[in-house]
Amino acid sequence: MAVDRWNNGGCSGEALAVTTATENVSPPAAISEIRVTVIDQETLALTWKTSREKDVAFYEVYRAETPDGSDRVLVDRVAAEPFYIQFYRDRSLRRDTWYYYSILAVDTAGNQARESMTAACKTPSGDWRLERSHAHEHRCQTS
User: Fold this and answer.
1) CA distance 31 to 28
2) Distance CA 69, CA 71 (A)
3) Which burial class, exposed, middle or buried, applies to 57 when counting CB atoms under 10 A from its CB (0-12, 13-18, 19+)?
4) For 22, 26, 56, 126, which has the most beta carbons within 10 A of its beta carbon?
């Protein structure tokens, strides 16, 4: 006869259902298709395809000022939204400066995805109104 922790017994003929929890050790897939767009002289906008996995809790946005990412810092954590495209605005940047971004998905168990590809963009300098029509074409790139 089975007995629970309160000494409640069951009939010996009853089936006992047992549920076991498995630990989530599998990280989410790496983020793809990051795009950076100039908003103004001190603001860049990032967009990326969201992870297909249902248990992504948030995205970590990293920024560097060197192409090799040696000075990479965590800029923000963005809550995962149930949309196909995720959006983030990086404000208060320096003018006429290249910025390199990568994004990591983090699931509810704390597993981090591999680092995404890097997207780069240069904030404009000078008279923004004159440069604006060509800003996206020659300033932003993805690698």
Assistant:
1) 9
2) 5
3) middle
4) 56
Contact 123, 95 (CB under 8 A): yes
Q: How far apart are CA 106 and CA 100, in angstroms?
A: 20
Going along the chain from its start, the domains and CATH numbers come out as 35-142 (2.60.40.10)
pLDDT at res. 136: 45
The single-letter DSSP state of residue 3 is: B
Bridge partner list, 126: none
Is 133 strand, coil or helix?
A: helix
How far apart, in whole angstroms, are the C-alpha atoms of residue 129 and residue 137? 15
What region does 92 belong to: left with phi over 0, alpha with psi -120 to 50, or beta?
A: left
Tokens representing 15 are 């089936």
Q: Is the dihedral of CA 135, 136, 141, 142 positive or negative?
A: positive
> Pick from 120, 69, 67: which is nearest to 93 by CA?
120
Q: Per residue in 12-46, pLDDT tens?
A: 556 656 665 677 788 999 998 899 999 999 999 99
Whole-prediction pTM: 0.75
Reading the block at residue 100, the tokens are 């390199």
